[in-house]
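FW: tagging you since you asked about this chain on Friday. Here's the raw sequence from the shared folder, copied in full. Didn't touch anything.
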Amino acid sequence: MAAYSILFKESVRRDVNAIPVKDLQRIMERIGALAEDPRPVGSEKLSGQERYRIRQGNYRIIYSIQDFELTVWVVKIAHRREVYRV
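HL: got it, structure written out here
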């Protein structure tokens, strides 16, 4: 299976700056694993959207998958109480 490229939306930079370093390392490892398997066990498709979410502790990583381009776009990283708010 071909590896997917991981790309980050520009707004994710602000999300990352708000996360404590101890949690950020695990989050980045989890995002890196999406290159090999963009739909890992525990990922869920969000209803009404073409996005998925995975959990890492108290944080949620929202991303979209483009299978034809072999890319994964990380859209948002936030605490579980804030991630789904618009």
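FW: The beta strands are 5-8, 44-45, 52-56, 59-66, 71-79.
HL: agreed, and The CA atoms of residues 49 and 64 lie 9 Å apart.
FW: great, closing this out.
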